[in-house]
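Lab notebook: predicted structure, single chain.

Context: the supervisor wants predicted structures on file for every construct in the current expression panel, including those that have not yet been purified. This is the next one on the list. No modifications to the sequence; it matches the entry in the shared construct table.
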Amino acid sequence: MNIRHTFNLWGPTSLAVLFAASLATPAFAQSADEQIDSQQAQEINLDAVDSASQVASRDELPRGHFRLPETGDIVGERYTVVVEDSSQTLVDIARRHNIGYEEIRMANPGVSLWVPGAGTEVVIPAQYILPPAPREGVVVNLSELRLYYYPANNPGIVETYPISVGREEFATPVGITRTTVKVKDPAWAPPASMRREAAERGDPAPSIVPAGPDNPLGEHAILLAMPSYLIHGTNKPDGVGMRASRGCIRMYPEDIASLYERLPSGTQVNLMDAPFKAGWGADGTLFVQSFPQLEENVGDFEPIRNAIDRVTALTEDQVEIDPEQIERAVDAPDGQFIALFGPGAPEIKPEPVELIDEIELTAAPSSEEKA
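Prediction complete. Output recorded below exactly as produced.
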């Protein structure tokens, strides 16, 4: 797999966000100490997305929060809901349940994205195999279009949220970086390439877009120690969960607002690309999950070999796995859980054996009979 190196310098986009914010908006940056002293376990405000359906009691965890399993690698659960309002789209339902565009689309291949219709049963794929990376800081799995956060001050919890990443010509890089400065109500300076494209279309872009409904950064931005890359909100939440940005990581407004308050500056951010994941369930079932591979990270990457190596590393050759099952998962990268082994795996029925018709054998005649 090609690994694009990261840098510890700020690029023009990052500087433009800060500079423009300081001139045009009430921007501020919090130090790590201030962030730690702020509300660390803030419950997310879901007024815009029907919070009543998300948090049934105070005992439940906030949106996107899961307890790390004592054993295994899997959090969450897959469930279904029934569309009650005919005006709801599948994208509306996805946002309500902390799911992204591609996730909801792949989980419901026979359902219309825009007119699912009242009474339609919709699958919510809110079950996740934790990515194959150290469980610390922020882990972004690009192919999965999902961010994971392991808060240092709450070691029993993992948070996960759908994200958008860079489209192919503006691919989000792979590598290790960290968070730096946080900006509230940032202004945005369109990059030179975007201004050139807009000028060619006869619709010149402004040099600065102030905070407000037209700002594509939304209300919160977290800068990374990597030129021109940020984690930020968006004024077009319908695009969360697809490859839609110019390299930055976009989140639903309610998700970035929560993360912004609790994510300390200096937190490690692991930008990785693991299109194939494998992990153990608490009951001893081995599951795998496959996502579409990002073309820019293919290089000499061999998907089948990578998948087999991942499963082998987990099983340590103690379990016999049919490699054809792994190959089928890689060939159909739809994000679905597939049980390979254990109590949750389907029983493998032996192939039927064709019975050969009995052939009547007669004894050869003796020499006397011949005479």
